[in-house]
Amino acid sequence: MDPLPPAESAVVRRIVADLKGRPGPLLEVLHAIQAALGFVPEGAVPLVAEGLNLSRAEVHGVVSFYHYFRHTRPGAHLVSLCQAESCQSMGAQALAAHARRRLGIDFHQTTADGRFSLEPVYCLGNCACSPAVMIDGRLHGRVTPERFDALVADGAAAP
Amino acid sequence: MTTTVYVPGDAGALSVGAGEVAKALTAEAARRRAPIKLVRNGSRGAYWLEPLVEVATARGRLAYGPVTAADVAALFDADFLNGGSHALSLGAADSIPWLKGQQRLTFERVGIVDPASVADYVKHGGYQGLTKALAMAPAAIVQAITSSGLRGRGGAAFPTGIKWKTVLDQPAGQKYITCNADEGDSGTFSDRMLMEGDPFSLIEGMTIAGIAVGATQGYIYLRAEYPHSLRALRTAIAAAHQAGYLGGDVAGAGKRFELEVRLGAGAYICGEETSMLESLEGRRGEVRVRPPLPAIKGLFGQPTVVNNVVTLATVPWVLAHGAEAYAGFGVGKSRGTLPIQLAGNIRRGGLVERAFGLSLRELLYDYGGGSATGKPIRAVQVGGPLGAYVPSSQFDTLVDYEALAGIGAMLGHGGLVVFDDGVDMARMARYAMEFCAIESCGKCTPCRIGSTRGVEVIDRILEGVDGERNIRLLEELCETMVQGSLCGLGGMAPFPVQSALRHFREDFRARVK
Ligand SMILES: Cc1cc2nc3c(=O)[nH]c(=O)nc-3n(C[C@H](O)[C@H](O)[C@H](O)COP(=O)(O)O)c2cc1C
Ligand code: SF4
Ligand code: FES
Fold first, then answer.
1. Which is it for strands B350-355 and B337-344: parallel, antiparallel or unpaired?
2. Residues contacting B402, CB < 8 A, separation 6+
């Protein structure tokens, strides 16, 4: 395990200090770390454990239980494709096949240029406008392959 | 004169371009020096008409939809600010037939009010329930909820008043109100719409619950997939504090109630109430063994109410209008109304709130207009990923907890996911097992191992290996999971599989490679 660079260590320590007084703070702390760094680095685990008086195994167990917490640095744009039933009924699997081809990666991977990460999600609450896709926290509905291409082209243009 | 224009800020409306429409409207109004006040309301739930734009006129709120940013200039040309007619005109929003026939109680304000404004909430009847509750004894509030017949809308349909009474009956001390906003079921979005369109009704419902059982702290456990709901809730909670409806002296009545939103982290199992409590405490979302019930030993070991968003948001209506009024809707033991969600391959998808007792057929065809693809509807999954697939021969079944149980299905959180005749039901059965394997909390073997085995067995059936024998094996496996699982994930994941085997057995045959 690589130790965190000093700047990131400082971020993690500050988050722990800010939130440790709250009831049941661990998930809050992990959310704050991911919001700040884009993921929960392995090197953050000992700092969090120490700060919250938990064992490293406990912290690691929580990080690994939840699909939302990422263990590696994501691409500049996070593309989440809904793969649950409602979106399946409107072609979500074909859209996923298209997205894999278009970006040249599979689910849980990041493009070599670091621009895009692709993730499956199970329902975005947009099932009346299936298939649904979320890109960097923005929700899109009734997404056709053409619309998908336009969305990632927009994403590629943005920083 | 300034004209009020409504463009929804609801995530679903935004997903089909409402944000771009709002931007274009603002720019075009500035260009033409037409003074407008833009309100970002919730969605009325007619998603096939989104983005749905409304204009306040002397003739009421007139609707246009579905509007794209490219239509905006033409709408101004048609003088839509004065209700001018245009190809996208829908007339008065209230009289759109799809909306007009609904019985909106829980959703009475969704899509109508400004979700960021306490004043607008109060103007539309908000906080009348709390005012009544503050003048009642706690036991009388609980009795009103019991008499209304309200049952939990999160899926288990347990009587809400009975749950509250258990918490009320615990000795005084720290108690909690927790709201389950994990809404993980595919095909459901009523919690999301409510939190984004009328968050104060949830806040008011939780406040009433706190006063009824003697709890001073509430938590909303919100799934991380709902960033728009998070913003709407945070805005509304701050506004309610500011207006004195939350905090140390609720509505000047000397009672305390505080409210906080906590985020989930993408685990379906955390919608199960004990897993949700573990997660709220900052741990792995492993299901707790019952007893003790959460009502006796819940969050941080204290007596805790756990209710769904829709359940809690219905409470203000019940208090404001009376238990009898609410119980006057519905059939049999299913009292009141249900916000039903039409999803998937459906022409007119969205939210339909009606009294219990209408048929699936009415929902699918009269409201839904049949499939989006125009092909025959072959199956409908009712009640989320753990719900049964209902074949067209059973579409006359009524929306009623007991009627659906009678055909081996369940209503759950009220979602209907529609599939046309292109659906491969063996694949859907495989998905149900796969989903269970991905989302299992790992605590018990039938669920953790059984679901993985289920996927393998279905794969073998589809490969043509020992078809009959493997189908029998699959049926036994389902039975083991139903009987031996600790919670509803492993215990109900077999329902879609069993229903697929029962009604669509012809799909379980070998595939040509
Ligand atoms: C696997 C599983 C997932 C569940 N997911 C949810 C959910 O997302 N939202 C919800 O309100 N209830 C969910 N429930 C039901 C809760 O356990 C619980 O019954 C409910 O939150 C109680 O509130 P209510 O009585 O108001 O419905 C789930 C149950 C199971 C077994
Ligand atoms: S049935 Fe599955 S999800 Fe439920 S407790 Fe057992 S392992 Fe966990
Ligand atoms: S199933 Fe895809 S948004 Fe709900």
1. antiparallel
2. B332, B333, B334
DSSP state letter for A38: S
**Among candidate residues B61, B37, B77, B110, the one with its CA nearest the CA of residue B310:** B110
Q: Using one digit for the tens of pLDDT, what is the confidence trace for A83-133? A: 999 999 999 999 999 999 999 999 999 999 999 999 999 999 999 999 999
B contacts of A123 (beta carbons < 8 Å): 183-188, 225
- Is the same domain home to B299 and B212? yes
Instruction: Check: pTM over 0.95? Answer yes or no.
Output: yes
**Chain B closest CA to A136's CA: distance in Å?**
11
Distance CA B326, CA B346 (A): 30
Please answer whether residues B460 and B389 qualify as being in contact, where contact means their C-beta atoms are separated by less than 8 angstroms: no
CATH architecture under which domain A77-157 falls: 3-Layer(aba) Sandwich (3.40)
Residue pair A95/A82 in contact (Cβ under 8 Å)? The answer is no
Q: How many domains does chain B have?
A: 4
Cα separation of B284 and A19, whole Å?
Answer: 19
> How far is B508 from A88, CA to CA, in rounded Å?
19
Does ligand 2 have an atom closer than 6 angstroms to the CB of B448?
Answer: yes
- Per domain, the residue ranges of chain A are 6-65, 77-157
Most B CBs within 10 Å: which of A29, A63, A65, A138, as the mutation test of the B interface?
Answer: A65
Q: What is the CATH number of the domain that holds B50?
A: 3.40.30.10
Amino acid sitting at position B366: D
CA quadruple B314, B317, B321, B327: dihedral, nearest 10: -20
Contact assignment for A31 to B343 by CB distance below 8 Å: no
Q: Tell me if B441 CB under 6 Å of ligand 2.
A: yes
